[in-house]
């Protein structure tokens, strides 16, 4: 295959140690953000389920009262004790929801700060990527870069 005055080489981009530390921290924070977001969604669903159960208990007008299913058997339970238990579960879930919301806001603030601090690194990456021409090659040379100004291992 002939490519006029282009040499096939991998992209070389020097990253300073401090920049790499920020990149790694951003990655960890981003994963934590995703985990917190999933936890918040699950907590909101749990709180809503508990509230729905409490509403159903309040609306229950059956002669047998409330029957709690344990395994395959139904056991009668006191309406007040179930209401108290659901109230505790709702309070616990809402407290954890509040904590998780505060945590995710802190993580979001840290992510935004890292984005601003790493803006120069991102600008450098975009500049280097835009200066190069991507070509599709067959076989094992998939997605290689072509540098017209590559001499002795240095990008000019």
TrEMBL record:
Pfam families: Prefoldin_2. Residues 83-117 form a coiled coil. GO terms for biological process: protein folding. SUPFAM superfamilies: Prefoldin (SSF46579). Signal peptide: none annotated. Keywords: Chaperone, Coiled coil. InterPro entries: PFD_beta-like, PFDN4, Prefoldin. One of its GO terms (cellular component) is prefoldin complex. One of its GO terms (molecular function) is unfolded protein binding. The keyword Chaperone applies. Belongs to the prefoldin subunit beta family. PANTHER family: PREFOLDIN SUBUNIT 4. This is Tubulin-specific chaperone A. It comes from Polarella glacialis.
């Amino acid at each position: 295959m002939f490519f006029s005055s282009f040499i096939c080489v991998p992209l070389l981009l020097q990253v300073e140690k401090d920049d790499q530390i920020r990149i790694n921290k951003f990655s960890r924070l981003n994963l934590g953000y995703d985990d917190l977001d999933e936890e918040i969604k699950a907590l909101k669903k749990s709180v809503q389920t508990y509230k729905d159960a409490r509403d159903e208990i309040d609306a229950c007008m059956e002669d047998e009262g409330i029957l709690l299913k344990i395994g395959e058997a139904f056991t009668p339970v006191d309406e007040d004790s179930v209401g108290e238990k659901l109230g505790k579960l709702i309070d616990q879930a809402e407290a954890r929801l509040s904590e998780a919301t505060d945590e995710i806001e802190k993580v979001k603030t840290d992510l935004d700060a890292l984005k601003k601090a790493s803006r120069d690194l991102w600008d450098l990456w975009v500049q280097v990527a835009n200066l190069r021409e991507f070509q599709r090659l067959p076989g094992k040379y998939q997605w290689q870069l072509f540098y017209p100004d590559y001499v002795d291992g240095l990008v000019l």
